[in-house]
Amino acid sequence: MSEHMDEFVKNTDLSQNKPMRDVIYESLRSTIINGKIPVGERIIEKEYADRLNISRTPIREALKRLEIEELVEYIPRYGVVVKRITKKDVIEVYKIRHSLEVLAAVSAMDNITPQEIQDIKDLLDLTELKNKEGKVEEVIALFGKFNSKIYEASRMNRLASMIGKLNEYLQRFRNISITDEMRRKEALMEHREILQSIIDKDKDRVDKLIKKHLDDSLEIVLKEIDE
């Protein structure tokens, strides 16, 4: 319990200029999503509140929001526990991501500028270099930047936020899916092809490429859940 609590406290910055209930929610959500609190671990309001020297109310409000997101669940006569991510959950998230990411790419076709295209090409070249150097963490971060630049080029700010929430939900599994060297090379090639399809304004091809890209990642994530 001490380790989990230490991580939660480290993630919680009460000096932020936002309502405490939001700070607690974001901190607890991040700690759970990153796998720092094990599946099935009981979250006791009083212990978390005492550790931060705050009332139990923002903890309770955060848990209610997390229950709606299905990150925690209430078990009668026991309390609130961290919920296991099931295969069904993962498949649903990937289906939603496919629809949203295709929408972002198609929208980017009409809005992306020559400078943005060049910036993304430079980013992909840097990603390839870091991958050859074996700097996996940097490659993972650069993959995230690629996605962000496509979302920015779509000029659909709410869409980017929605996809971001979904990506956070599976972050610890997604990172695992690209720690494999062969998968990283394939993902980099797919990113180049997705960009070219956006440049060519080829909607059918971008749909197929994004589906393959996500399906490959999904396969690895599902295997990880099995283990």
Automatic annotation (TrEMBL):
One matching Pfam family: GntR
GO molecular-function term, one example from the UniProt record: DNA binding
Gene3D superfamilies given in the database record: GntR ligand-binding domain-like (1.20.120.530), Winged helix-like DNA-binding domain superfamily/Winged helix DNA-binding domain (1.10.10.10)
Annotated PROSITE patterns: HTH_GNTR (PS50949)
Key word Membrane present: no
SMART domains, sorted: FCD (SM00895), HTH_GNTR (SM00345)
Domain HTH gntR-type span(s) in chain numbering: 18-85
Cross-referenced SUPFAM superfamilies: GntR ligand-binding domain-like (SSF48008), Winged helix' DNA-binding domain (SSF46785)
InterPro entries in the record: GntR_C, TF_FadR/GntR_C, Tscrpt_reg_HTH_GntR, WH-like_DNA-bd_sf, WH_DNA-bd_sf
Keywords: DNA-binding, Transcription, Transcription regulation
Keyword DNA-binding: yes
Name this polypeptide is given: GntR family transcriptional regulator
